[in-house]
Recover the amino acids of this structure.
């Protein structure tokens, strides 16, 4: 039987396809990203990962099972490192890392946070959507990344065995908690997941086009 | 198959028995409650129902299914009426209704509120425990209540068809949401339910013995 | 001394000006709104007010002072009526009221909800931003609305004495709670307010341009 | 001017006095604690510190100022160490560390958690009450602890310079956030603080007398 986490992905296959074909994603993979898109991404994604730490804390406040709690503790450490990497990228490229969040970025982090506050299963579903979308999208385009690409390290990071293992473990925790959810809960979690992946796509669109 | 809500009660049968045999409960049913126990109960239970309104609001903030949302809206109205009835009882008996919450009262309402904030299913499970315990306990002792008992109206209220219907509907909503919960969620909700009914029993003990 | 609530507005004067000059706002006032913009607005704003009910519940779960609790109860009733009015407008115009939320709509409601869950003062500040922006913006353009405009009732609603009184009372409750906030809290609430009014502007932009 | 955090303590001076004179506290200081009281304390306090980790996570989910966030991260690590120390004490004394929480323990942790979920200032006030009560109470009785007391390490821990510095820093963060709170907020936080210290006293009473 298909795992609950995989069924969530299946139900959003069109968005998955759209993410892997998005000009921002392809530009980062090819190493041809325009300066303005790079700058938007580095700044807004840095805001995103800093806010994601609150999402992780909100999930841990639910008193999750031990295995999930350990995964979340590890994620928190990873987010600190990722925020630092964004700051170093900004510095290397010669622009300030600090910026105001744009509405889609603020909306996406608010969406994740409100669900993490709402409930353990709701918040875990939204977080899994974000992490799984990253893994699958960068995996889909990783082969396009030329040797020596300035963004090669990022793509390597999000397609590494470590990250793949983390996403698999997170999905395993979600599946174990969700079990065979009632129709009402399945509908609720399905809506949460779909909203998150639409934000993921909107986020890349925002980086590509600028704020509007 | 036994409904999830009924299995929760089954797993706490000993507490159910202890509640229906508790001297406070018997004293209220018989109409022989000492003045001090009456006073403690009226004041602390009034605090309880006022705090329970926050529990209801926290549950509604999760965006529950429509049927459950309507039940909760109705409960909120009932709690306002119940707080008024406690105030009138205090006035008729000649003592002020206002009081400081005692630790067990404050602990019980904090327990319900923290679970209502924690998640829809967690909070609904805790609330159901409180309501079902009231229905079953007063139903078990209602026949002892003599005609003209000063507390007859209270017992009638908590054994009425309307209240029985409300508790059945609340259990139905819980069962529909919970479905066949995963072992992890069943364990989690079972713990929430057991904690709530232990508080229910501790609450009556508190009314009977005084604060200590 | 300028009230805290008024200082929040002062600090966002540029957004206030931009709202009152936005083509969507002018189009609704003039009665010249393109069909597509009307449709987007009716559907997305209906989603907004339905979600705002969760915001109200989350605020009430904090156990606000009595006067504020009553204001929020009244707002909840108003939101039900407003959602119905949107549904009737959709029906009269011949399109289904139900729709999927667009990212900016979902982001805005998530933003309000996450702050309402975060704290009483944080959530009240965000809610006040939304209500005050509506009052001030429609007041600024109300004189443009010709007699017999199909949208005249909406503008009348958001510029009525009743709505003005509600917003003033809400601001009064915010000022009473906030007092003279510490620099850290003033900065925190200022950020919450600014984020909300930027979403308000982004919402109208979304209705005017379509989802993208 | 007296700091806000100190005024909270002043308003609860009677409870402070009662804590430092409580037979459980004196018994631990003197090293004369009955076996049953020791066992109750080790088990229930271990549950307490494990649940307090959720309180810390809930506070961090509010996105506190950086200095406070670092203090909370440090506290989390300390709680893990403290839970381990309780487990080792249980092992050395030959009884299992695992136990069911008693109502007052469950009520106290629910109280802290519900306020930590309720808001940053509310939760910080409740947490500060618990930490400050520990520091002041053990400081008051530390001189009674004889050399070689089996509980000497515990008392040394809660009267150490490190712990004193932590509590001072936590109070400083509370004072910086609270500023000169409005009457409504001062009343709200005062109530939160008083409830927490009453639970602290009730907790020791529970350890001393057993569950009832």
């Amino acid at each position: 039987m298909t795992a609950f986490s995989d069924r969530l992905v299946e139900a959003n296959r069109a968005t998955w396809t759209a993410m892997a074909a998005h000009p921002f994603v392809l530009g980062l993979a090819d190493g041809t990203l325009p300066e303005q898109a790079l700058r938007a991404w580095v700044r807004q994604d840095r805001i995103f990962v800093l806010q994601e730490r609150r999402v992780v804390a909100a999930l841990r406040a639910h008193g999750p099972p031990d295995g999930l709690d350990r995964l979340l503790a590890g994620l928190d450490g990873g987010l600190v490192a990722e925020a630092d990497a964004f700051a170093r990228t900004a510095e290397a490229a010669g622009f300030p890392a600090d910026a105001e969040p744009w509405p889609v970025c603020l909306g996406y982090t608010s969406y994740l946070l409100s669900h993490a506050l709402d409930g353990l299963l709701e918040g875990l579903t939204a977080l899994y959507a974000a992490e799984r979308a990253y893994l699958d999208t960068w995996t889909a385009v990783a082969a396009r990344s030329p040797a020596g690409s300035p963004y090669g390290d990022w793509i390597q990071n999000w397609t590494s065995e470590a990250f793949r293992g983390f996403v698999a473990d997170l999905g395993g925790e979600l599946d174990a908690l969700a079990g065979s959810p009632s129709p009402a809960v399945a509908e609720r979690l399905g809506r949460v997941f779909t909203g998150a992946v639409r934000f993921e796509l909107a986020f890349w669109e925002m980086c590509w086009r600028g704020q509007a």
